[in-house]
Amino acid sequence: MRKILLRVAYIGTGYHGFQRQPDVPTVEEKLLDALKEAGLIEGPWESRFQIAGRTDRGVHALGNYVTFFTEEDVRVNQINDLLPADIRVLAWASVMYPFKVRYPLERHYRYILHRDHVEKLDAMIEAAGYFRGTHDFSNFSKRSERNPVRKVNDVRVSSSGEAVVIDVYGESFLWQMVRKMVSVLLRVSGGEMSPEEVASLLDTEERIFIEPAPPGNLILMDMKYGVKIKLRHDEYAIKRFMSQLEAEFMEYRDMSMVRGAMLDAAGELKRMLPED
To answer: Which residues are catalytic?
Structure first.
């Protein structure tokens, strides 16, 4: 009996998050079905199946992880052939029994914004610094959190072409915490808040509602563990996932062009209307 670690990537658009839920599609459900069909496990309880990150509905991942026990040989592409095209196992490793996938030393999330949505990049960069360190993040999650104190190792805001990239690093995060951090940074960018006001949202008993930024722009990039893991990345699996991403990119590009043309045509119709 061996304990196996899988690195899982997925496009979260069509799923109600990673964790299993009744009557809705989830990444975990599809992964468990594939592992059972491949003969690697009988079920989640028998195999002691565990997950590292419970990403929300619509959130994507390049580096989420799961572990399970099996007596069978692991073949990545056998698993992937049984998965939908938007979910892929990219790598696997055999780990020691005491290894706990749920407790990485660091999680890395990345949020992508279009440059047009960011007015004051320098202000966002300054504001991001206030999130670093250990704070009470009660305003950045649901009120029922037992322990709202979290340590954020780093928040980096950078610009690359048409994109503004927000990278957040920390051991663990509250529900919607990263997306609410992004929402506050956008308020700062738009001039609704000063960078210094971000500190007033932390370590306080005053409760302020923060609308989370949309989930579709968020990616769970990777996790770091305190032990050395010999992950065996599969080149074919990575290429197949890249092909799926490229296909979706082309589809969205074409849809965007069509909508742009319709927008221009609608504008022409509007200009033809008689003035009041």
So the answer is: 56
